[in-house]
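Incident review: delayed structure delivery

Summary: a single-chain prediction request sat in the queue longer than the usual turnaround. Root cause was a stuck worker, restarted by the on-call engineer. No data loss occurred. The affected request and its eventual output are reproduced below so the record is complete for anyone auditing the incident later.

Affected input:
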Amino acid sequence: MKAAPRRRMTRPIPSVALYMTPSPHSIVAEQTLARAQAVMKEHKIRHLPVLHGGKLVGLVTDREVHLVESLKDVDPRLVIVSDAMADAVYSVAPETPLDEVVGEMGARKYDCAVVMQKDEVVGIFTTIDVCRAFAELLHSRLAK
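Output delivered after worker restart:
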């Protein structure tokens, strides 16, 4: 008797919540770029969600900070975050499938996704998190 062909079990695609950095550091829109830079340096991060009245209003990255620092006669201690932040932020819910988030980040060249739940920042998913997720998924799903 011929054995039935082995069917490969498919696993559901995990959500972004599994790989995001929970409770990310953030900064208030009225703080200075010098303060943003200090937070990023202290915590070794490159992205800060920007809040105003507890609501997400933008994102500031080390790139914006370095750009302002490179401008002649501009002092980062006098420039407020809201003047340098990106106000268009890619945000997703924690239950969003990982492939959807990574696909959008790749297609639009986003460095991160801010993870939101009920208008509150609950996580951040950066390209570093993408690499960690990819490595784990390769190891657990493909390596035998």
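Verification: Strands lie at 21-22, 27-28, 47-52, 55-61, 91-92, 112-117, 120-126.
Action items: add queue-age alerting; document worker restart procedure.
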